[in-house]
Amino acid sequence: MMADAAKTKRLVVVSNRVGPLKDTGKAGGLAVALVDMLRERGGVWFGWSGQVTDAGTFSELHRERSKTVDLATIDIDPADNAEFYAGYANRTLWPVLHYRLDIAEFSPAFEAGYRRVNERFAARLLPLLRAEDQIWVHDYHFFHLGAELRRMGVENRIGFFLHIPFPPPDMLSALPRHRDLVRSLLAYDVIGLQTDRDRRHFIDYLKEEANGVDLGGHRVRAFDREVTVAAFPIGIDTEGFHGFAEGPEAKRERTRLERHLNGRRQIVGVDRIDYSKGIPHRFRAVERFFEEYPEHRGKVSLLQVAPPSRSEVDAYMDIRRELEHLAGHVNGRFADVDWTPIRFITRGFPRRALAGVYRASRLALVTPLRDGMNLVAKEYVAAQDHEDPGVLLLSRFAGAAETMGEALIVNPYAADEVALAIKSAFDMPLDERRARHDALYARLVEGDARNWANAFLRLLDG
Ligand code: GDG
């Protein structure tokens, strides 16, 4: 149990994008969990306003208050946007941390912009802090923020959670000045990673590159600091999302889809367009499935929902074009007048309708080449009808695979293996589907977003 004194400590959350404070269900599990925690303890959520202006990080502080929670944001300027956000964060760190050295861009200007923005965010956060606050910083945009706060004299407990993978040390060491980046991380008191694999990589890095020592009991010593390092697999608002799937918006969406499906079965994929999500590999696996198992032609189709993201980064435009081309190729090869094998939709769905899309699908393909966790896998399971659940096919390279062993675990690079798994999902008898689903669902309730945040904050409370 949390000590009462700790419970009364105010919480300050820092993340690149913040909010919303109201109708948090719209934004997903993370917002639900953080807003719950912020409401309970009272606190501040600080981050980027989403605006790019000339005043940038010197802009006025934008504030919005809802009961016990303050939302505080600042802008960034065009250079910050190019160098920090679209640059070091998304063209350098994102690929390196997803094991993609081949497309990572290393630029001193990006690196300087990243440091500058971390320093500026720390300087703007400083006057909002109180002596007893617990500070919780999120994700790869802010590796240096804790170290900057320390430099400014902040002695509060500060935690950091990395939402994306931590790669093996050999890979990270290709990043210029990687030691500075990791040294900064050690300024935090608690470092949270998604999975045991990520935690192992982090500790291996400290041992290999910084004479680190694993002290056991989540404690690690390196760079003259002793800190807590642990895995906290992030969850969703499981029961809330199940409720969405039973609600009217989901039902409307289902009816619309089922009318169109006309007795056919639907496979679903839902991903931001991103090369880490393995969508082209998935399309090729679906092609292999129709090739190898022709009895399914005309009876099954894939609905791929893929809202665009980070379109200012070239690699993201390339992948969109590649997907349009691949979908066209598969459809050209197999489609019939009344059947389209792959429907590729690049607009987003409202969250409650998305729950209906999941519910209307007998199978979900969640096949990233590398993913911190992957919440789509969890949402799909949460949305199912307990009496007649669909099957989750999950990449072994998604963090979620570590705690979702009852899914059909596949290697996303092996099209024939994925094709066979798709077939076996359609052959799977009801009692097996239910047994797998029940085990997955129970674990999702246990590891929901609230419990995830509580587990992290318990360690941060110290
Ligand atoms: C990072 C890590 C980690 C997608 N399409 C629509 C839509 N979405 C929502 C999904 C899901 C979210 O976006 C995507 O979450 P993921 O976990 O799959 O991926 P990232 O955005 O890459 O997130 C990841 C996560 O952080 C949390 O720690 O799991 O590994 O990469 O919630 O539902 N939502 C709506 N319409 C869409 O069309 N409303």
Ligands and ions found = GDP-alpha-D-glucose
User: Roughly what fraction of the amino acids lie in strands?
Assistant: 15-25%
Q: What's the CATH class of the largest domain, please?
A: Alpha Beta
Low-confidence stretches: 1-5
Number of strands: 16
The major beta sheet can be summarized as: 10 strands, mixed
Rg from Cα? 22 Å
Sheet with most strands: strand arrangement: 3-4-2-1-5-6-7-10-9-8
CATH superfamily of the largest domain: Glycogen Phosphorylase B
Fraction of residues in helix: 40-55%
Structural class of the secondary elements? alpha/beta
Q: How many structural units, i.e. domains?
A: 2
Form type: globular
**Architecture (CATH level 2) name of the largest domain:** 3-Layer(aba) Sandwich
Instruction: Output the CATH topology of the largest domain.
Output: Rossmann fold
Mean pLDDT: 95
- What is the oligomeric state here? single chain
How many DSSP H or I helices?
17
Distance between the termini: 12 Å
Notes on the protein architecture:
This protein is of the alpha/beta class. It folds into 2 domains: 2-235 and 449-461, 3-Layer(aba) Sandwich (Rossmann fold), CATH 3.40.50; 238-446, Glycogen Phosphorylase B (Rossmann fold, 3-Layer(aba) Sandwich). The chain is 45% helix and 19% strand. It has 17 helices and 16 strands. It has helices at residues 4-7, 29-41, 78-97, 108-125, 145-151, 169-172, 178-185, 196-210, 238-246, 248-261, 279-292, 314-334, 351-359, 375-383, 415-427, 430-446, 449-461, and strands spanning 11-17, 43-52, 62-66, 69-76, 134-138, 158-161, 190-193, 213-216, 219-222, 225-231, 265-270, 300-305, 342-345, 363-366, 391-395, 408-410. The protein has a 10-stranded mixed sheet, with helices on both faces. Strands 13-12-11-14-15-16 form a 6-stranded parallel sheet, with helices on both faces. Strand 8 and strand 9 form a beta hairpin. Helix 11 packs parallel to helix 12 (314-334). The radius of gyration is 22 Å and the shape is globular. The model is unreliable at 1-5 (pLDDT under 50). The structure holds GDP-alpha-D-glucose. GDP-alpha-D-glucose binds at residues 28, 163-164, 234, 270, 272, 305, 307, 348-351, 354, 371-376, 379.
